[in-house]
Design goal:
single chain; mainly beta
């Protein structure tokens, strides 16, 4: 549905001319329920002093003309009138800018790989693919690990990131009562060690439990730009409280954006 503009002009004779307001009014067809099959009647009046209605007459040789013009998209949907260029006779020559309604969507990305390594080492742990280790166990060196994901930026160009959730499953902790996970973002493009320097939260966790955390607002746009491509677990602590294991299964990134 759109708008109809009603304009009044006085066509002058050869000896005089008269300027009148171009725009008398706009009818929003969406609000009035007007369709192509609707008969519409218009009554044109003008007011003088004291808000009294006056009859309009053309002088000798002059003709009064009413023009009905399609003004394009409805103001209620577009937020603007098309009646911005052109004259009452010529009409507008350009349509108003297209108004695109923004939509909020949420996309889920499942991890495709999980790897771990000894902190400071240059190679991945052999035979440990599919598990993310964090912390030091009595008989092993301190470990850290990460999840890798498909490309996150595909639909995010020009979007505003509203929320990012990191989800993961803790399979094991050193203590039966639970432990502490240190969640860190990474921007890895390959399956390399290190790169887990950006800690966003430490979280008390229990064995065989699923967890979900929100990424702080200051890091959100990094998922749009490609700065952040996944997350992992790492700690510099050797306290057994920090020894945890997480699985590849159920590791996900949920991104809510407006575009």
């Amino acid at each position: 549905m759109g708008q109809l503009a009603v304009m009044g002009t006085i066509l002058a004779n050869t000896s005089q001319s008269q300027t009148v307001p171009q725009l008398v009014g706009i009818l929003d067809t969406a609000d009035l329920g007007i369709t192509q099959a609707t008969t519409v009647w218009f009554r044109w009046t003008t007011q003088g002093p004291g808000s009294k209605d006056y009859r309009i007459e053309g002088a000798s040789g002059e003709t009064i003309r009413l023009t009905l013009r399609d003004e394009g998209p409805s103001v209620s949907s577009s937020g603007m009138s098309w009646f911005s260029t052109g004259s009452a006779v010529e009409g507008a020559t350009e349509a108003p800018p297209e108004v695109v309604e923004k939509v909020t969507r949420t996309e889920k990305f499942a991890a495709t790989r999980a790897e771990s390594w000894n902190r400071g080492a240059s190679s991945l742990l052999s035979g440990k693919s599919g598990t993310v280790y964090q912390g030091k166990y009595p008989s092993v060196s301190a470990r850290e690990g990460a999840w890798w994901f498909p490309a996150l930026t595909g639909n995010l160009s020009g979007a505003k990131i509203k929320r990012v959730q990191l989800r993961f499953y803790i399979d094991h902790t050193y203590w039966g009562a639970g432990g502490t996970a240190d969640i860190r973002l990474h921007g890895k493009t390959g399956f390399t060690t290190g790169g887990l320097d950006t800690s966003i939260r430490t979280l008390k966790v229990k064995r065989e439990a699923q967890y979900s955390i929100d990424v702080p607002a200051s890091y959100l746009d990094g998922f749009r730009t490609g700065t952040w491509r996944g997350f992992g677990l790492s700690t510099s602590s050797t306290n057994l409280e920090y020894y945890v294991q997480a699985t590849l299964a159920n590791a996900e990134i949920w991104i809510t954006y407006e575009k």
